[in-house]
Amino acid sequence: MPPPADIVKVAIEWPGANAQLIEMDQKRPLSSIIREVCDGWSLSGSEQFALRYADGPQLYITEQSRGDIKNGTILRLAISPARAARQLLERIQSHGIDARLEALKELAKLSADPTFATEFINMEGIGTLARLVESGTHFGEMLAFTLTAFLELMDHGIVSWDLISLSFIKQIAGYVNQPMVDVSILQRSLAILESMVLNSHSLYHRVAQEITVGQLIGHLQVSNQEIQTYAIALINALFLKAPEDRRQEMASTLAQKHLRSIILNHVIRGNRPIKAEMAHQLYVLQVLTFNLLEERMMTKMDPNDQAQRDIIFELRRIAFDGENDPTGTEKRKAMYTKDYKMLGFTNHVNPAMDFTQTPPGMLALDNMLYLAKVHQDTYIRIVLENSSREDKHECPFGRCAIELTRMLCEILQVGELPNEGCNDYHPMFFTHDRAWEEFFCVCIQLLNKTWKEMRATAEDFNKVMQVVREQITRALAMKPSSLDQLKNKLRGLNYSEILRLRQSERMSQDDFQSPPIIELRERIQPEILELIKQQRLNRLCEGSCFRKLGNRRRQEKFWFCRLSLNHKVLHYGDLDESPQGEVPFELLSDKTNNCFITHDETFTIPVSDIKSVVTGKDCPHMKEKSALKQNKEVLELAFSVLYDPDETLNFVAPNKYEYCIWTDGLCALLGREMGSDLTRSDLDTLISMEMKLRLLDLENITIPEAPPPVPKEPSSYNFTYNYS
User: Fold this and answer.
1) Which of 11, 380, 548, 687 has the most CB atoms around it within 10 Å of its CB?
2) Which CATH number does 534-587+596-679 carry?
């Protein structure tokens, strides 16, 4: 007979004594269980003790988290959080250096525990640590442990960052600005300043006054990638929180300090491979840099603004420089209209009207002017080449440039905030000070080339733009390291190659529309769906690692979830680090202290208890987390398992592939349809392969629309076969 669900068998340790093996009744108050354990070792004052996990982070067990304890867990009797906080607070204020160092070391470890952190903060512990830092008397390990504890305590969000004093900020900024400082102190100082900027508007201004961009750029020239990552993260935080009117000024300062070239030479082209967090910070910097274009992208052209009209006149002058303007007003107006038509503007009389739509607004005109001035020969060649073609085959430069600018803004997501889980940076954008403009110049030449290859007319404009978008996105997916490499990639992706790729990636509809083929497809489909279902369930049995989204990405915590081999139970638990390969059940800890996992659930969830699976904005953690709700990518990767009695297990998948695998697998477990994009793609691919294999012997044979007629019955059945 299995033990009751409320009883868990655990071992409890105490230094210098034999461990107690007890059956813990989860319905009993925790204080009663602790009193019983203390009595077993003849310890008085049970209210001064608490239970902690013996392994992993060794978190304290509370009434809220005790439900995570599973059979076989090893616990440890320890002094209570309040008592531990009081003792450590006294020890870090003692005069003995060795005692203070040990106390700070222990405090740095315990500060990650929310129960202990609450007690320590209630005793004004953060103020004590801040004063120790402000005194300037701590150095080396002692200072590093102090800063670590301070950062861990603040990250719990119990107290506001606005309470930090100016003298503390100056001291932390001093460590960052010092030419020679211990690496661990520098890391923690940069992390503290980043948290200040991100969590407090008032502290942003104070930090911005104390930290110079030059000092931060200096930290990018070291060989330690961790320091480089923290430095770029702080630059990004200052950039993100800067007022709109100061961002352009800050960008100019960074350009003067050669930030781009330093990142290119010391980070991207450094000796070490780019880690995930560094890739994320480079992506954030790329997004914030491109977002500087948003103002011009959303600015309409004023047809009455002479300065803006002069830019269009300049485009005309550069293209048709050798032609003298006629003297008469009417003749001049007629000539301008003709020239604007040759330039490819939609409105030949007043081309300023072409730039009144946002996006791309004035950004398109900026791109055109850059091409005309910096790559003048290319600009003139494109304009004159098209003006000499037949009218029906000319490529309208103005219209193409405007639409291309809009397309590039969509591809690079200009104006959107960085996504939390994205590492999609492009090295080539760090190879040129005017990377956006140069990217446009490469793409407008591609568009002109593709137009000629397609022998397009004005009616084919949208088709050409679709092909160009596909060429650009495919080339970007290859991650070219320079603009020259981008040109080579695009050269290989000509119109013929795009047609070939499209043909190889999709099933030819013409060959699969006859009734016999459709019937064969319908017969094959259930087999393929079952195959996909088994693959999804097998993948769930292997399990996946999910990242806990906390305040600091660089101190990531992970948890793991997998399906049992008999498909009856979901197992989940915390991990100390991201796993490499499969994770055994016994390595999953049960200390799932995570904002995405409720505290009242057990370590295993029977599949029979699962009621439904919800995704996106319907997930409980997306409704609770307003910051995450605003992040489009996180919202698209979120899903939750709702199970009896009214509990949830909440996920944020690391990528779209894992999201589809898990939502499909969970739906398959519940007997529901697998409706993800990945399932549709896999279904099309596998059915196409199976159909082609089965029809291989019928190549070049016409398949009739209807089955052959059944012959008439014979007049007599009096016939035999002679086998002799």
Assistant:
1) 687
2) 2.30.29.30
